[in-house]
Design brief:
Helices cover about 70% and strands about 0% of the residues. It is mainly α. It is globular, with a radius of gyration of 16 Å. The protein starts with 11 loop residues before the first helix and ends in a 12-residue tail after the last helix. This is tRNA-(Ms[2]io[6]A)-hydroxylase.
Length: about 190
């Protein structure tokens, strides 16, 4: 369904298991950034009522996920560390088109968002299927389903709001680009790292 070029090596979970506090902290900040992204889409596209309504739902869900991760951190006696840079997302951001109309920019922002959700969904699936901690396996299985929903929402809106962009062609470009950079990741105990 996701169409990603490269699957995450399940051995990545061994790295994650070596530092659960780090993956949880990184995950919490990923959820905060996802909520902020949805709010930014609202800010720049306030005239699109259906989009605004759905982005507010996503922002709220992402904040709920942040709270859920924070509860897991507290329950385990761990600490929510400082925000981490997400080099993977920063590399994706560079691929966004900066020219064209406002509608073109919106569509590429939606594809950028869909790409992040797709990879997060895939990583959560790998975690849910391979982590030894049963509580975290269930936690990530539930979040995987939510991320898949966000992925399809972003992709659907990109298709809806395109004016003169071949969204399927542009999505394939996103998939190819992501496939070229993801080889540099999967070596750290972070969601995208």
């Amino acid at each position: 369904m996701l169409g990603l070029k490269l699957a995450t090596d399940p051995r990545w979970v061994n790295i994650v298991e070596s530092n659960i506090e780090e993956i949880l902290t990184d995950h919490a900040w990923c959820e905060q950034k996802a909520a902020s992204n949805a709010i930014s889409i609202v800010t720049y596209n306030s005239e699109l009522e259906e989009l605004v309504t759905e982005m507010l739902v996503i922002a709220r869900e992402e904040l709920e996920h942040l709270q859920m991760v924070h509860e897991v951190i507290k329950k385990r006696g761990l600490t929510l560390g400082r925000e981490r840079k997400d080099h993977y997302v920063n590399e994706l951001f560079k691929f966004m088109k900066k020219d064209g109309s406002r509608r073109d920019a919106l569509c590429d922002r939606l594809l950028f968002s869909a790409m992040i959700e797709a990879r997060s969904c895939e990583r959560f699936k790998v975690l849910s299927e391979n982590i030894k901690d049963e509580e975290l396996a269930k936690f990530y299985r539930d979040l995987m389903i939510s991320e898949a929903g966000h992925y399809t929402t972003f992709l659907g809106f990109a298709r809806k709001y395109q004016d003169n962009i071949d969204i399927d062609k542009r999505w394939k470009e996103w998939i190819e680009y992501e496939g070229s950079i993801i080889t540099n990741y999967g070596k750290n105990e972070t969601v995208h790292g």
